[in-house]
Amino acid sequence: MNHPAIDEILTQLEAAGYIADKSLALYIHLAAKLGKPLLVEGPPGVGKTEIAKVLSGILKTELIRLQCYEGLNSSQAIYDWNYQRQLMFLRLKDADQVKEEDLYTDQFLLKRPLLEAISSDQPSVLLIDELDRADEEFESFLLEILSDWQVSIPELGTFHAKSIPRVVITSNRVRELSDALRRRCLYIWIDYPDFDKELQIIKAKVPEINALLAREIAAFLQEVRKKRLNKTPGIAETLDWAKSLAELHIEHLDHDIVEATLGVVLKDWKDTKDTKMSLSELLEQVGIQSKMN
Amino acid sequence: MSDIRYTSLTDQMVDFCRYLRSKGFYVGPGEEEELLQVLDQYLIGDRELFFLSLRALLAKTKEQQDKFPELFRHYWQQSKDGRSQKSNDKKQPSQKPTQKNKEAQFRALKDWINRGKDEKKKTEVKIYSEIGASEQLDLSILSDQEFNHLMRQLQQKVRYQRRKKRLRYRSRLKGSSIDLKQTIESSKVFFGEPIYIYRKKHLPKKHRIFLIGDVSRSMELYTIQLLKFFYVFRQLYDQLHAFLFSTDIEEVTSHFKQRNVREMLEKLQSEVNLWHGGTRTGISLKQFLELKGYSKLDKSSIVIILSDGIDSGNIELLERCLFDIRKRSGKIIWLNPLKGNPDYKPESKGMKAALPFLSALMPCHNFEAMAAVLDEINK
Q1: Looking at residue B7, what is its pLDDT?
Q2: Contact residues on chain A for B34, CB-CB shorter than 8 A
Q3: From B10's CA, which of B63, B97, B176, B177 has a CA 20 to 30 Å away?
């Protein structure tokens, strides 16, 4: 499967340390060509946010991040006025000399991520992280901005975008996003990696790790993810564990080492308790799997 | 797909989009236009790239992305073979029961409706209640007047609980909108200067309720109670989805929007085809997840399952589905009509499997029990 633009993107992603398949490179290419946001969904810890960081590195541009949460509104996402500074300005100046328009200038305008992104001279990468945590009202509001690329500030007028940012929206699927937003974006689902990909990631991110240990870690995580867990470990946990074991100069997994370091991988007490109970079985599977692959 | 074998790529793309639309994909003229915009010689020339491009542009959810490979293969295979097929696969009309089957199936329901008219015994009141003796009565034997009276009491209770929640939120320094009154109030200390801007804290999201009722054979005695229970809840909560299941599940939300209980029962009787079959809770919950669960459940959702827990289906599947539901929702409340008996112990396989995932296991046979469920919802 050869496409010059996609091959180029893949090479750049790998150089930036992000192990991706050709479908992600294709999505990035299509998003750029169509000027559409990329909507990335998947379980926590699979590298959704990392895409935006890597993309900003590749394009050598600023990464502007909007972290979403319940109750997020326009004053936190677009702009707000620096009320304290305005009041100080009033106190310092003579009341007769101050006009209303003096209070509403760029001097007192607090640009939040969305306004910052469209005011940038160079196209930036705008990361809207965990949009599913924000309310439906905010989503509708965001849709308007993503469509028109302009923001109206009553006191100052309409800000048209100086440059259209490359938008990456992530979601953990805690709440279902609206159809209107989905249609506006290119959608990609990123799942937990398979054995080969996870091994590749470990070797790329933890180069000092022993090859056998890397295989065993990847196999162990594959087995653990098959269990019904409250908090399934993602790639972040895999890499933390790999780095910890490499730091301890461990060359091979055994029962005691895994039991002692399980807290790096599993972040829920019930998951840890249940996994410890079936640890011998898991390690047997790991031994088999790492030999097979 | 139409009968014509397409030679033009544009026409074929448009027909493929039409095919996907018939399968429930959100594909409009905008998507068709984008598709033609991006397809270049490289993307068309390579099958894998072509497939991925189409999927990128046309599949907008995880479920659609999972279904897409099969639909893609099916369409392009058919197209290659030159076979004609209708792109609009019409939904198979559901097999409506014959009059004879209807009578047999709804016999229990009819008996209960008629019994409700005739039997007006009052049970002995054991516990004092603020509403009155009738809230202790089994739902199935309440008269229409008593039922409506008690329902209005519950509606008042719900309105009070909602109002209480709103009043509980006071001004804070962080919040979504400015509280002018508190801001001006606090500025008096600073000679009228509003140094601190007070804001109103964001109101909590309303609960979305999912009611899932078991109408299988083992629940035959409680069907009327269950349906009346659903009806009452429909009047109390706007954001409510109702489902009935036995061997399969069916959404019946619209059936509970009738003016009174009698009309609701008659509509259900004529349109729902699940009465008093076997019990396959696991499969039914899996279908629920696929229908609505995966897309609609969030932490403000409450799932209420009304069943005796006597299950002839796959218990492991039941556990898996309950795990998924619990992970996605705020809580699961299980209402078991058998719990109305003080000596009841949850020993059936289904109940034992369900217990670890439940926030509460409660009875549901009278208005007093319903009031307790409302309290549990608002905890």
Answers
A1: 55
A2: 34, 36
A3: B63
Q: How many CB atoms lie within 10 A of CB B105?
A: 18
Record: contact B296-A179, CB cut-off 8 A: no
Using CA atoms, how far apart are residues B308 and B219, in angstroms rounded to an integer? 7
pLDDT, chain A, mean: 88
Angle at B129 between CA B303 and CA B168, to 5 degrees: 55
pLDDT-above-90 percentage for chain B: 12
Copy the structure tokens of residue B255: 């059936």
Q: Predicted confidence band at B70 (pLDDT cuts at 50, 70, 90)? A: very high
- Asked if A4 has any chain B CB less than 8 Å from its own CB, the reply is yes
Task: Check residue B203 and give its pLDDT.
Answer: 59
Length of chain A: 293
What is the pLDDT, as a whole number, of residue B300?
A: 85
Which of A2, A31, A171, A35 has its CA nearest to residue B57? Answer: A31
Token reading at A286: 């790991």
Q: How far apart are CA A152 and CA A144, in angstroms?
A: 11
Q: What beta strand segments (E) does A91-161 contain?
A: 109-111, 125-129, 150-153, 157-160
ipTM value of the model? 0.81
For residue B240, what are its two tokens? 């409510």
Comparing CB atoms, the residue among B31, B59, B298 nearest residue A174 is B298
pLDDT grade, residue A187 (50/70/90)?
very high
Within 200-219 of A, beta carbons closer than 8 Å to B belong to: none
Q: What is the pLDDT of residue B109?
A: 52
The whole-angstrom distance between B3's CA and the closest CA on chain A is 30
Q: What is the mean pLDDT of residues B42-68?
A: 86
Write out A155-212 in H/E/C secondary structure: CCEEEECCCCCEEEEEECCCCCCCHHHHHHCEEEECCCCCHHHHHHHHHHHCCCCCHH
> Amino acid identity of A97?
Q
Q: Which residue of A has its CA nearest to B298?
A: A175
The interaxial angle of helices B47-58 and B9-22, nearest 10 deg, is 50
Q: What is the pLDDT of residues B224-238, one digit of tens each?
A: 878 888 888 887 787
B376 φ, ψ (degrees, to nearest 5): -65, -40
Strand segments (E) across chain B: 171-172, 177-178, 199-200, 208-214, 240-245, 249-251, 301-306, 331-335, 360-362
- Whether residues A187 and B61 touch (CB distance < 8 A) is answered with yes
Look at B298 and A176 and tell me if their CB atoms are within 8 Å. Answer: yes
Nearest Cα neighbor of A258 from A228, A223, A207 is A223
> How does residue B111 score in pLDDT terms, banded at 50, 70 and 90?
low
Which of B129, B301, B284 minimizes the C-alpha distance to B207?
Answer: B301
Are A103 and A42 within 8 A, CB to CB? no
Residue A234 tokens read as 């993602």
